[in-house]
Amino acid sequence: MKIIDTHTHMNEERLYKDRIHIYQKAIENGVVKVINNADTFESYQPINDLAQEFPSFCYSAIGIFPTAGSGNLNEDLLKLEDGLNSVHNLVAVGEIGLDYHMDNSKETKQKQKELFNAQIKVAEKHQLPLIIHSRDAEADTFNVLIDSGFEGNVTLHCFSGSFQMALRYLRHKKNIYFGIGGVLTFKNAQRLVEVIQRVPEDHFVLETDAPFLTPEPFRGKLNEPANVTYVLEKMAEILHKDKEQLADEIYQRSLKIYGIHE
User: Fold this and answer.
1) Environment class of residue 167 by beta-carbon count within 10 Å: exposed (0-12), middle (13-18) or buried (19+)?
2) On the CB side of 124, how many CA atoms lie within 13 Å of its CA?
3) Which of 41, 71, 157, 175 has the fewest CB within 10 Å, making it most exposed?
């Protein structure tokens, strides 16, 4: 069995300091590759270091998180370009998008949408997929992405929308994928369970968002890539599929989405 954790943060200090053990445990559990996603400009360097230290295991997604912009769009984009041009094992622009959770003022929304749009254009230029973060911004995320006309592959990280929203995305964009993580194992995950049941399964990828969103039975503890196996087991249970078969299907799909060669 092979699994790719398509969204993790091994660059985060709590995981980075224990990275060798985390790598070994992941491999033991069939997690053979991970994609580390940038969430600050400072994260670019450890993500690059990880890709060089574990070249067949760690892959890189570099982007500007919605709340990480400095307010100077041109300067931020220059930093992004520097990262994209220097990081090893680059497979996507991410994580980018919209986050209105802490501030939903009109000014903040406008700045975030400008940053989001600008990074979509950067991804187009570099011919890279997008990994999108959306929190309390479902309608705007949909509108910005679809209105952009972006033709590349897109993963909606930690998808939390309804199955109706998922189908709406699919009506407008065939190469869109839904990142499914530890939330699927939570007792209050009825909406996400419905997504798994009713959305075509060839649009799912697996993720942990480690060190966050730890699945049951370890909820409340530090998350790590090895725990993506619990998400796989829950998805297989919901879909009434063999776990090994499901893992292989998602693994092959993930390689294709991100252009990763074994």
Assistant:
1) middle
2) 11
3) 71
Please answer whether residues 5 and 206 qualify as being in contact, where contact means their C-beta atoms are separated by less than 8 angstroms. yes
User: For the chain, how many structural domains are there in total?
Assistant: 1
| Amino acid at residue number 202 | D
pLDDT profile of the chain (262 residues), mean per 10: 97 98 98 97 98 98 96 96 98 97 93 98 98 97 98 97 96 98 97 97 98 96 98 98 98 98 84
CA-based nearest residue to 195, from 172, 178, 214 = 178
pTM (predicted TM-score): 0.97
Centre a 10 Å sphere on the Cβ of residue 33 and count the other Cβ atoms it contains.
25
Which structure tokens are listed for 125? Answer: 């230029």
CA 243, CA 234: separation in Å to the nearest integer?
Answer: 9
CATH number, domain with residue 26: 3.20.20.140
Written as six digits, the tokens of 13 are 């200090």
